[in-house]
Amino acid sequence: CYRENILKTAKALVEDTKLLVSGAASSQDKLAQAAQSSANTITQLAEVVKLGAASLGSDDPETQVVLINAIKDVAKALSDLIGATKGAASKPADDPSMYQLKGAAKVMVTNVTSLLKTVKAVEDEATRGTRALEATIEYIKQELTVFQSSEVPEKTSSPEESIRMTKGITMATAKAVAAGNSCRQEDVIATANLSRKAVADMLTACKQASFHPDVSQEVRERALRFGTECTLGYLELLEHVLLV
After folding, report:
1. Closest CA to 115 of 137, 100, 130, 132
2. Three-state SS for 162?
3. Taking phi first (over 0 means left), then psi (-120 to 50 degrees means alpha), and beta for anything else, what does residue 31 get?
4. Which DSSP string do the residues of 204-234 spell out, in sequence order?
5. Which helix (H) or strand (E) holds 39?
6. Cα distance between residue 71 and residue 5, in whole Å
7. How much is the pLDDT for 31?
8. What are phi and psi of 29, to 5 degrees?
9. Is the pLDDT confidence value at 1 over 70?
10. DSSP classification of residue 91
11. Is Cell wall biogenesis/degradation among the key words of this record (predicted)?
12. Mean pLDDT along residues 74-103
């Protein structure tokens, strides 16, 4: 029941995505209508996904988290898409903002597809862990793209904060190795959820610290490079767990 509702609402959201992209080249009214429609649809989708997560029962909280994370990714992608649409409104087809819009639309569709795959996998206990790991790998890749962009963080933090956040990576690494050894679905799902948060927190703290006023250009570049290398190394670890 929930799966059918999620599928139907997700399809409606994909249609809204198309309207948003085409709306950038049309009137402000059409663009506003498309934005409002997509906002209504994502609210409906979030509700049916939450109901689906609740139906799993409280004895499987990690799988509930996987579902909630999937809808959060879709909501974030939609927010970015609406921002990109506003930036591209009334611009010529070869304007850089149009390429940004196409990129945001692609991420949006990727995340909706990922949500649907996750919903399907939830019904099959044998594939839950694999799917959770695949979704986390995709999420980390998207976070790395944001990290590597030229966008300056809204706030800065101390180098100490960045160091503190690397402890989460150490814990997640140990969990990933243990999951690779046990091959138990629940261990793999827990690893996927922990990895997602640990890497995202590390990337955020690293970028904020690298833009601290006391940090030189040379140190900033090194910090950003090591943040990227750490993430790529962790992705490789997750890929190995997935193979196992």
Report:
1. 132
2. helix
3. alpha
4. HHHHHHHT-TT--HHHHHHHHHHHHHHHHHH
5. helix 28-54
6. 14
7. 80
8. -65, -45
9. no
10. -
11. no
12. 87
For 217-231, what is each residue's pLDDT tens digit? Answer: 999 999 999 999 999
How many Å apart are CA 61 and CA 21, to the nearest integer? 36
- Give 56 or 41, the one with higher predicted confidence: 41
Cβ–Cβ under 8 Å, residues 109 and 14: yes
Q: How many residues does the chain have?
A: 244
Taking the model in full, what pTM does it have?
0.84
Q: What distance in Å separates the CA atoms of residue 210 and residue 226, rounded to the nearest whole number?
A: 11
Contact (Cβ atoms closer than 8 angstroms) between residue 114 and residue 70: yes
Do 224 and 210 meet the contact criterion of CB atoms below 8 Å apart?
A: yes
Cβ–Cβ < 8 Å for 12, 116: no
Structure tokens at 220: 């900033």
Collapse the DSSP code of 92 into the 3-class scheme (helix H, G, I; strand E, B; otherwise coil) and give the result. Answer: coil
